[in-house]
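Lab meeting, item 3. Inverse folding demo.
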């Protein structure tokens, strides 16, 4: 069985521990906490079978003006960067593998209605139990 790679862009240790217990043990989780770490992992360790991205991560790697523009949405800045220069079909494939897991989901949905199409959204404050279900679904679909 091919080992699945998951990029977890999250600074909360409890999310990592929960995923380690709840997902396929053959999956490899690469965890990063900041924008620059996420971009580096994407380039060095990709391709990934699944992305789990918190909207509020360490902004290290963003220019100061972008830090202001993306305050509490730094994870979204990372996603925009990996989508940059890709065709609509490539972006759709990346979105199908992406889960945004954040306490800012409701605000994000209001502000980015077009960009959320194709993404799975998990509200950390209400629906965290859905996260491992979504990850397993993405990884299983990737096997088919």
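The presenter then showed the designed sequence:
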């Amino acid at each position: 069985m091919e080992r699945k790679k998951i990029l977890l862009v999250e600074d909360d240790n409890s999310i990592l521990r929960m995923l380690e217990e709840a997902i396929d043990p053959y999956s490899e989780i690469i965890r990063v906490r900041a924008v620059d770490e996420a971009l580096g992992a994407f380039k060095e360790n990709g391709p990934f079978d699944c992305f789990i991205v918190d909207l509020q991560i360490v902004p290290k790697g963003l220019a100061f003006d972008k830090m202001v523009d993306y305050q509490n949405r730094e994870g979204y800045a990372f996603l925009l960067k990996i989508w940059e220069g890709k065709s609509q079909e490539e972006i759709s494939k990346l979105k199908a593998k992406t889960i945004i897991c954040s306490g800012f989901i409701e605000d994000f949905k209001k502000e980015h209605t077009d960009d959320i199409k194709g993404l799975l959204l998990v509200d950390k404050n209400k629906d965290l139990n859905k996260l491992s279900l979504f990850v397993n679904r993405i990884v299983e679909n990737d096997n088919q």
